[in-house]
Amino acid sequence: MAGVIAARRRRQRVFRWTVLVVLGIFFLLPLAAMLEFSTRNSETWPLLVNWPKLSDTYPDLAEGIVSSLEQAALTAVLMLVLLVPTAIWVRLRLPRLRRLVEFLCLLPLTIPAIVLVVGLAPVYAWVTYFLGGSSLTLVFAYTILVLPYAYRAIDAGLSAIDVKTLAEAARSLGAGWTTVIVRVVLPNIRSAVLSAAFLTVALVLGEFTIASLLNRTNLQVSIELLGKSSATMSVAVSLAALLLAFVLLMLLSLAGGSKKESK
Amino acid sequence: MASQAVAAPRRRPRGTALLGTVPFFAYVTIFLIIPTLVVVIGAFAGDDGGVSLANVRALTNDYILDAFGRSIVLSAVSALIGAIGGALLAYALVTAGGTIRRIVTSAAGVLAQFGGVTLAFAFLATIGLSGFVTVWLKDHLSLDIYSGGVWLFELPGLILVYTYFQIPLMLIVFLPALDGIRPQWREACENLGATTWQYWTRVAGPLLAPAFLGSTLLLFANAFSAYATAAALVSQGSPIIPLQIRGALTSEVVLGQQNLGKAMALGMVIVVAVVMGLYSLLERRTAKWLG
Amino acid sequence: MTGVAVHLEGLRRTFGSVHALDNLDLEIAAGELIALLGPSGCGKTTALRVLAGLEDADGGRVLVGGKDVTALPANRRDMGMVFQAYSLFPHLTAAENVEFGLKLRGRRRVPGRAAEMLELVGLSSHGGRYPHQMSGGQQQRVALARALAIEPAVLLLDEPLSALDAKVRVQLREEIKRIQTEVGTTTLFVTHDQEEALAVADRVGVMRAGRLEQLDTPAEVYQRPVSAFVADFVGLSNRLPGTVTGPVISVLGTELPLVTPGADGAATALVRPEAVDVTPAPDGAGRVLTSSFLGPTSRVIVTVGETLVVAQVASSQLPALTPGTAVTVNFHPVPVALDL
After folding, report:
1. Which of the four CATH numbers 3.30.300.180, 3.40.50.2000, 3.50.50.60, 1.10.3720.10 does domain B31-290 have?
2. Contact C44/C207 with Cβ under 8 angstroms?
3. Which residue in C53, C58, C59 is closest to A4 by CB distance?
4. What is the pLDDT of residues C140-173, one digit of tens each?
5. Interatomic CA distance for residues A111 and B41, integer angstroms
6. For the whole model, what pTM was predicted?
7. ipTM for the complex?
8. A162 touches chain B (CB under 8 A)
9. DSSP H helices in C3-131
10. Are B193 and C81 inside 8 Å of each other by CB?
11. I need a surface site. Which of A139, C146, C242, C280 has the fewest CB within 10 A?
């Protein structure tokens, strides 16, 4: 048999593996190098997992880690409180405002973080005046930063269900608007809310620009600082942070992937 | 959608419903609209608070123009390399099975967000002066990759490092377009007598061109906006615009140029906005063909 | 233009453990339209794709006009194909789509030929439209024009109507029949819709598990199915218990001729609803169970003892056949198949 089609499949397979191997090396090499680099000093990793000793040896790093975790959690909460009710409400009651809300939410995509910092500086002068200079105040800026990603996730979740009909059904059964949002719509977009929260956490853990230029601290700022004194440790922390982000976003995309497949 | 919205019955006056959106709009006004206005207005404000074109005029200073030029070169080259690499990867995955595809796209989702300090340190550990690859090449092949100067902290180095997040981003934005190419088109082509070359030049090529171009523009905007990676990698000098803005924000204000940073920021926004506008135009074309 | 004969010889193709094609033999005469009919997974589409060169066969030969084309790639086989849907190139207008194959061949007078083809499918005024500006039915017409424009040796239709609404489907299948007769291209039409197959084909091939179960004219396939599978797949049948004696089977007291003789003894006959007459009679053995109005004809279900019989009757009869009415059941003396 001729196998014209089989021959093409073979060619595609060769092409596929060539591309995957070449790019695989390019993408894995830096990770391998980080591992190699961070194990040049055998004390680095044991120290990294020993929290009391770590915070003793590198207090700035410990502060950065704690700040980032707090910022991530608070940003996720603030984002959800601000965005979810608004997105649902606009869909239900003010469909004409949807385009405006979408525009505002996606606007940060066209405003680079470095530009946002320039404009935020005077605003943060007021924030510092009222709330002090704590690193937690970064949460306000971060909520804006994650808006496009969070909005898209939540909007996709709302598009997948018929919010209007659900709300009408609930209201015909005597539910008030609060009940509609909290007990009817929200449970149906749980996975969208979850992915918005995941994305927020991942983005906040990787943020450097705003924290650094507003003179506040977080994980990335402290890693950068650490790089100037202890290269090995800073690479080890980088790798650990990267792996954490990997796990977080992998979970997110695998959850999303399995959902798509079951459809 | 729109007509439905108009026909929707309103049980209560609109004003009451609007109240529900007040927190959102108030927040966005304070932390997004006002900062944007600060940049736009500040760019046209003199040090005395009056209207002035001095800052915008100062953008034509050689060192700022050079920085803009380098930013554009960096963004364009890394976008092009990323686009080609990402498109090849996307095509390889389209012909592959589900498992490989899922693993690679998930990894790309992570790597596309992988910028900033950690990425800079990853490359320092790889091809920094005492990096893994640098040392290995020197020891085993007596090859010094920096014999012509340390290029990692300059434009070539930035391009290489940026490629690391550009290729995964391309994969994510280009894959849906490739998925939109229906197998029937290739088969119809073959039935009508086309060779593989003719299929690519007359059908797949023209169909994918807007998506490819649009994705490349998105990559351009992505690189153009990036700050953290370059900031962590380049500590001396400010070769690109985001680093110039850092300089304007952190260093002592040069007399008469208090608002220069805002003018540069405005310049960045304009470049990004134009690029993103073109991107959404091309995106619409793609949606029509491959949606 | 006259068509060429096509011969599929002992085609074999397996996907894993599934035999998509199991030594399939099929001869299509020059200019003939054969419809391959069968449930999904019976191998009909695989047969068409192997003929087109879009799929390799594990064994067997494909002959077109006496020439062995088994080893030829699809782009050198000279076949026009219409797909289920969405096969038009979205970046080209209807006219450009039709011209596509002509340009590849470097034909002269390309726009003229394209206009002719669009006229043939009744879309002369739509040449400048893009696929997304046309309805599904119009798109399939353009696809047909594109396939025919290159004057292919063989026309392949892969469920071309299955994505369309019922009304357009009927309209377009009549048109396909008209155009095919007019152009005279040898045609293979794959479908899972029995009505469609019976309406357009010169001969219908009913496929099952990679083989041809029956290949015959539409009337023969419908009236004299060779097996229970064919009888079942092509139209609705009653399964009625009876007793075979020689060339006849006795069903509820009526002797019916057999399509193919079976062993004497108890058997199940397959009887079409339209071959059953139901007449009200006070002393009849049957009782009407339900009756449903379906338009010009109606369906009545009658119990005769333990047996359920479905009958198709003229709707004018319906008022006399209310549930509970006593009726007699008679069968038309047409040959029936046995359920084996």
Report:
1. 1.10.3720.10
2. yes
3. C53
4. 999 999 999 988 999 999 999 988 888 888 888 8
5. 15
6. 0.84
7. 0.86
8. no
9. 44-52, 94-104, 110-120
10. no
11. C280
